[in-house]
Design brief:
With 118 residues, the chain is mainly β. It has no helices and eleven strands. The strands form two sheets. Strands 2, 4, 5, 6, 9, 10 and 11 form a seven-stranded mixed β-sheet that branches. The chain has a four-stranded antiparallel β-sheet with strand order 1-3-8-7, with no helix packed on it.
Length: 118
């Protein structure tokens, strides 16, 4: 069982930046592929960015060049640096952990709200 706790959300003006963090515990962080997903009030949950256990990254087209995903395996932390934020980035952001081989081991955090508004 992996416990995931997100932090770092908040209210920011368009063009601003935020850094989301996800603290993982309860399992060997190094064998999990990690990701950030988001869900707006009228939307389905969508992928934002993922980073594999071997640090291969993948981004949604809408965030390429603005967001950067990273992980600190030693401290079991996942990060999402978000720059040049737009109102359409407003959503609840969720941290996800998926075991790199046992795909049924899939865990979610409780989410953190990001609101981009002037």
């Amino acid at each position: 069982q992996v416990q995931l706790v997100e932090s770092g959300g908040g209210l920011v003006q368009p063009g601003g930046s935020l850094r989301l963090s996800c603290a993982a515990s309860g399992a060997d962080f190094s064998v999990y592929n990690m990701g950030w997903y988001r869900q707006g009030p009228e939307d389905l949950r969508e992928l934002v960015a993922t980073i594999s256990s071997s640090n291969v990254t993948n981004y949604a087209d809408s965030v390429i060049g603005r967001f950067t995903i990273s992980r600190d395996t030693w401290n079991s932390m996942l990060y999402l640096q978000m720059n040049s934020l737009k109102p359409e980035d407003t959503a609840v952001y969720y941290c996800n952990a998926e075991h790199r081989t046992l795909r049924a081991l899939d865990f979610w955090g409780q989410g953190t709200q990001v609101t981009v508004s002037s």
